[in-house]
Amino acid sequence: MSEHKSLGIPTLTNTSFGSWERVIRGYCMQHSLVKFLNTTVAPADEAALATYNNNRTRTAGILTQFMGDENFNRLKATQPPLDKDDPAVIWKFLTDRYQANTVQNKSKVYHEYNIFTFKKDLSTFNKDLDKHLSLLSSVGFVIGEPIGANIRESIFAESIVGKLPVEFENTRELLWNKRPLTIQMVRNALENKEREYVIIVDTDHQKRRHCAYRRQIIKQSRLPTLQAGKTQSSYQS
């Protein structure tokens, strides 16, 4: 069990398919298993066949381990029955199920966006926002004008602003006054705010270094005087 945890692969039913697919593909590429996600031809050589079968089974095991109970039960119940030992069959089953732009899949990814909150700092928030926007796009969730869109862009942009904590009240007010908003307008404002914060922190760091340097210089300049005083008092004694 600890070995599986160390892989860093999430269970599919606990995350989005786009994120899970990236992690699975990355892991398989690192271990020369990625070709088994597609249909392969078994080699004729006996020694090569043993290695081939071992890697093929290993890939199927990884997919089975991390697909989640719900997906595994669906795979078992599929009619006509699918080959649950073939990683290419498992992979196609999962991609067909998740990459289809179903209402259920869109709803799940949009729900994940809705519950995500501001954590740690603005840089983390901006990265999380980009991740959720990418996931929404991957399932065909359209943000734009009412015709053909899942949500109006101005409403979605306002929802981003609503996630900002009270310490960004000035930024929120500035954006509210520019309504109707676009996602790009909000992102530009947040990125500018992040750059301002980096400059402030860097300036503060430089000031601290300068003050520390001045204290060191003053301390060193006083040292000869203190040493001379000690020497003089020793002579007098």
Can you characterise this structure?
Helix 8 (153-161) packs parallel to helix 10 (183-236). It is built from ten helices and two strands, in the order H-H-H-H-H-H-H-E-E-H-H-H. The chain has helices at residues 2-6, 17-30, 46-66, 69-77, 87-99, 103-115, 122-138, 153-161, 169-176, 183-236, and strands spanning 143-144, 151-152. The protein is mainly α and 237 residues long. The protein is flat and about 75 Å long. It has two domains: 17-99, no CATH class; 107-196, no CATH class. 15% of the residues are buried.
In short:
With 237 residues, this protein is an all-alpha fold.
Q: Which sequence of SSEs, written as H and E, runs from N to C?
A: HHHHHHHEEHHH
Q: What general outline do the C-alpha atoms trace?
A: flat
Give the N-to-C terminal Cα separation: 76 Å
What topology, given as strand order, has the largest sheet?
1-2
Low-confidence stretches: none
Strand content: under 5%
Number of helices: 10
Count of extended strands: 2
Number of domains: 2
Helical content stands at 55-70%
Mean pLDDT: 85
Query: What class would the helix/strand composition place it in?
Result: mainly alpha
Q: What is the gyration radius calculated from CA atoms?
A: 29 Å
Major sheet: 2 strands, parallel
Pfam family, one: Retrotran_gag_2
Q: Characteristics of this structure?
A:
flat; 237 residues; two-stranded parallel sheet; mainly alpha; 2 domains; 69% helix; 10 helices
Question: What is the topology?
Answer:
Blueprint: H1 2-6, H2 17-30, H3 46-66, H4 69-77, H5 87-99, H6 103-115, H7 122-138, E1 143-144, E2 151-152, H8 153-161, H9 169-176, H10 183-236
Parallel strand pairs: 1-2
Helix pairs in contact: 3-5, 6-7, 8-10
